Automatic annotation (TrEMBL):
<dbReference type="InterPro" id="IPR037674">
    <property type="entry name" value="PIG-G_N"/>
</dbReference>
<protein>
    <recommendedName>
        <fullName>GPI ethanolamine phosphate transferase 2</fullName>
    </recommendedName>
</protein>
<keyword id="KW-0325">Glycoprotein</keyword>
<comment type="pathway">
    <text>Glycolipid biosynthesis; glycosylphosphatidylinositol-anchor biosynthesis.</text>
</comment>
<keyword id="KW-0812">Transmembrane</keyword>
<keyword id="KW-0337">GPI-anchor biosynthesis</keyword>
<keyword id="KW-0472">Membrane</keyword>
<feature type="transmembrane region" description="Helical">
    <location>
        <begin position="592"/>
        <end position="612"/>
    </location>
</feature>
<keyword id="KW-0808">Transferase</keyword>
<dbReference type="Pfam" id="PF19316">
    <property type="entry name" value="PIGO_PIGG"/>
</dbReference>
<comment type="function">
    <text>Ethanolamine phosphate transferase involved in glycosylphosphatidylinositol-anchor biosynthesis. Transfers ethanolamine phosphate to the GPI second mannose.</text>
</comment>
<keyword id="KW-1133">Transmembrane helix</keyword>
<feature type="transmembrane region" description="Helical">
    <location>
        <begin position="557"/>
        <end position="580"/>
    </location>
</feature>
<feature type="domain" description="GPI ethanolamine phosphate transferase 2 C-terminal">
    <location>
        <begin position="439"/>
        <end position="856"/>
    </location>
</feature>
<feature type="transmembrane region" description="Helical">
    <location>
        <begin position="837"/>
        <end position="856"/>
    </location>
</feature>
<dbReference type="GO" id="GO:0005789">
    <property type="term" value="C:endoplasmic reticulum membrane"/>
</dbReference>
<dbReference type="Pfam" id="PF01663">
    <property type="entry name" value="Phosphodiest"/>
</dbReference>
Amino acid sequence: MLNSYGSRHYGLLLTVSNVLVPISILIFATGFFPYKPFLPGLAQFEPLEYGPPPVAHFDRLVFMVVDALRSDFVYSNNSGFTFTQELIRRGHALPFTANARSPTITMPRIKAITTGSIPSFLDVILNFDEADTSSTLSAQDTWLSQMKAKDSGKLLMYGDDTWLKLFPETFDRADGTSSFFVSDYTEVDNNVTRHLPEELKRDDWNTMVLHYLGLDHIGHKAGPRSPNMFPKQREMDEMVRQVYEAMVTREHLASTLLVFCGDHGMNDAGNHGASSPGETSPALVFVSPKLEAISRGLPSPSAYREDFDYYTKVEQSDIAPTLAALLGFPVPRNNLGALIVNFLPLWPNTNDQIQLLLRNARQILNIVIATFGAGIMDSDPGQDNCVLPKDDVQALACEWKAVDSQRLALHEYNGSLDSWVSAMSKWLSRAQDLLSSMASNYDMSRLALGQALALAAFLMATLLQTSTMTRMPSLALASAYSVMMFASSYVEEEHHFWYWATSAWLASLAITRAQRVGSRIARTVQFTAAIFATRLIRGWNQTGQKHAGKPDIVTTFLATNPLLLWALVGATYLNICFLIHKRLVGMPPGSSTVLVTFLGLSGITFKLAFTYEDSPELVIGVLRSLKVATEGLSLLSHARVLLAGLGITAAYGLYHAITRRGQAKRTDLVELLHHLYTLLAVTQSRVTNIPLFLLFQLQFYFLASLDLDIPSISVSSIMLQHMSFFASGGTNAISSVDLSSAYNGVSGFNVVIVGILTFISNWAGPVYWTSATNLLLLKSRRDVSGHHRFLQHAANLTLFATCSVAAIMAACTVLRTHLFVWTVFSPKYLYCMAWNVGQHLIVNIFLAGGLFSMGASG
């Protein structure tokens, strides 16, 4: 008996509980990640007492983005940007480090650069959907729309097609490239560069945007210390040289400003999306011979800095108002950036300098008033509410009155311009910080409704437990996990919880369960192998935030010993092929051997070819000869051959199970599909993570030897799913999302196929353990019928899922004003969505339920 509800009511309650999970997640997300309102229309120059707007020093703009251009890549002693460093020394380039606020993802960073505002965190999700057009900036005021409004030339764009999605029908000539083919860091940049010589000869444009992706792709694939990084820096430096030399030799480019920068940086693992110093510190360089008038030159290169703060640090949003001043157009209406004061000496007239800062400040003041109401400006500096302001908003209003009074005194009392510039800069910075912190207007009613539904789902899940004893393991695990969600450091270092909890759990199983089955020697060997595998898994990839990029098994042993790596990879493929061969029941031995050999060779040669393109330093000696044997086959065709082989083998197993009835045959099919998925999982994993699947197998053998009850199987599954995710390099930061295998076998963007491949790449381990759990359930000798067995397991998983969802929602609500809400808790909520919709509902419940039914039916 399941419990007093009966089988039908049990299934209904389980279904309702799981249906509430995505509904609650979606409702909460719409309240937590709303689109920000913006001021419509194009800014116009408003009359000021200081006369007409100051003269523009430039009439053309080349805006060159080198994706993931961390500041040290340009400024340090180990940089390949030698020509750029020469320009800095000569005073023809002004260098800065731009602060790229989290999320450090391309789409929101481009929004910040072009509008000067702080994008919505929801742009993180939209950044991964190449077909999305809902986040367009065509209706917003940007420096691109201002340059187009000048009607002094055409707008050009070559490179990352994110610009084309954000600015539809803006560019007169364009050639976009996808940013998600991260295995390519050659052609993706050549497609940009090939347009450059011809465009520099033309004089019919006023704005050229170039967005190079290769350096970012190298980082994703092999990290910032990849041997490919320095040559790529030299290549980008050569692009700077080409543009600069055209500026000084071609008359129509004499008043051109070159700005080249990174949209974000990268961490020591080569990824981005979070808020580590490396990710938030891209380089920003303004280049023109005219800058020699205000710069005597700066030392370059500079000594390496761990905080990546080279030269003056500015906000990335400061680019928009600075370009407005230099190119002679109004500051975009939604800008929160401040004019970089280093450029003020270009206008020797005092009135011009005052006017530039004043126009910038009044534009931001309009946003302050639109956000908080005109009443905040009623206070005077001498009044009590300015002596002791009640909040930051009132303090900001009082400071504005004081700074404005100081401005009026400049002429009347011949005050100090430098003092006023400093005061105004401080006010702009305060306004920027205040408005940036108000970037999301939470919908509290939606937050409350989402939490209420999640709590209701959790209460239903608790009613599904057949007894207190079956409820305790899952509930204890869920409770311990939920408490952690209220501390930012625990969220960042969540992997430690799963590592230690899993080790302790396996030890407890060895003590309480192993004595019931098998010999003492067999139990000892199996447990020793499992706990040894667990220890190796824990040290495989250094993950989290505090120790990212520090030594681990991959960097210390495998990356430095390619032959050892490929020996382990080969052993993994051999093991998988052996297991597949065992389950090809009914196929003639010769045919099954040929098929399995084909699958194994297709898999490992594809991985060799893929790794050679990705990290050629890992393919050495005889391995290169093996790679040459498949030289005529493209990666696309190679992947399709492998996927076709997997599909044919799965189809045969299904056909055999249908035509040869019997539960043993159905169980053979489920095992065959498990091993075929394992081959797919290693194909979608980084080559250095492939040996992990051998270690997973040792853990599985230990669990299979114990004949566990359903609650123990469920808790083991939850723990090993999470442990394997973090062991493969996953974190709670967007920067750890692996896109390297998202296009295996795919020639173009398809949101469904690319989404599935991306999910498998990042959740390869958790999906493996879902499938392995099915085998444990099918082979369990407990006195519970097959159908009821899976329902109990699903109820245990649902108890943990609903409890974790409710806890994460509560943490995000309670800590919504926390300093790390956008860098820690918001990314965690996005991962919560992926875990509970993708892994729990689709994989653990829907797919696993279907496979279990197939294997349990006779």
